[in-house]
Every structure is written in structure tokens, then in C-alpha cells.
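C-alpha cells incoming
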């Protein structure tokens, strides 16, 4: 086989491997819930001497319960996903009780929260979440669409 054909074949094989790994499976987290169930965004304080509008902020607790029964014994990575918001960019920053990784993401992104072998039928944790948006937050009531995805090894 000619050297350029070997290179092309290797490149195509690498692309196929990457494509196979980038096939996320949406996980059922319908038993997860926030405390409180509805959160009011509040204006962030503006430090003295700054003209920045500060933006909006809210704190909440999220009790996570992800159904992993179809993936027990499999190895992979679980990501938390925040759908892009039409009005303004939302930032979520969280800490956990230890089963899931702490992290940060912006609307339209996903962030790794778990990597390894899935040991049980559910994955549970409690997150302390800070939500922030810019001063362009316009609505008194909006639903943020978080969900979880699994990439299997």
C-alpha cells in the first residue's frame, strides 16, 4: 500500500473511532429535584466604584438521582448539560457531596461530572449550585434545561 494511502486509512480509522466515542446517551434523571423547587434570581451587588450592572444570581440545592440500570458494569463518562438559553448566557457553578465532580459550565455546554465504571442502578448526589446571568436577564420565570449524558467507553 502506498504511504499516502496508509496515512489516509489511518486518518479515517481515527475519525471513525472519535465518532464512535461521541455518541452520548441521554440518562433519565426525572427523579432529581431542586430545593427550593422555584428559585428567584436576585441582583448581584455592585462593588463600590464599578459601573458594571452586576447581573443576576441564585443559589439552590439539587438532589441528583440518575437512572444508570442499563449501564451497570460499563465504563464511561457522564456529563451535565445545560441547554442554550435564548435570552442570556447562564453560568452554573457547583460543589458536590463527592459522588459527582464539582464543576462549572455555561449554557450551551456540557461538563464532566463522573468518569469510571458504573457500579449501581442509580447515581445519587447532592449539588450546591450557584446560577449567574448577565444584566440582560429579562424574565421573572424561566425554566433551565439541565440533563445528563453518558459517553460509553
Amino acid at each position: 500500500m502506498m504511504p499516502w494511502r496508509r496515512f489516509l486509512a489511518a486518518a479515517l480509522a481515527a475519525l471513525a473511532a472519535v465518532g464512535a466515542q461521541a455518541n452520548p446517551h441521554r440518562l433519565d434523571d426525572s427523579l432529581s429535584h431542586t430545593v427550593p423547587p422555584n428559585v428567584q434570581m436576585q441582583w448581584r451587588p455592585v462593588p463600590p466604584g464599578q459601573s458594571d450592572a452586576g447581573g443576576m444570581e441564585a443559589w439552590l440545592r439539587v438532589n441528583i438521582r440518575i437512572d444508570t440500570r442499563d449501564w451497570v458494569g460499563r465504563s464511561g463518562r457522564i456529563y451535565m448539560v445545560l441547554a442554550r438559553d435564548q435570552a442570556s448566557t447562564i453560568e452554573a457553578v457547583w460543589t458536590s457531596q463527592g459522588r459527582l465532580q464539582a464543576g462549572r459550565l455555561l449554557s450551551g455546554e456540557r461538563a464532566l461530572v463522573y468518569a469510571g465504571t458504573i457500579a449501581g442502578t442509580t447515581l445519587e448526589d447532592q449539588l450546591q449550585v450557584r446560577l449567574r446571568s448577565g444584566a440582560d436577564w429579562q424574565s421573572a420565570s424561566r425554566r433551565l434545561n439541565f440533563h445528563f449524558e453518558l459517553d460509553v467507553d
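note: Strands lie at 25-27, 33-35, 42-43, 56-67, 75-82, 90-95, 103-106, 109-117, 122-133, 146-152.
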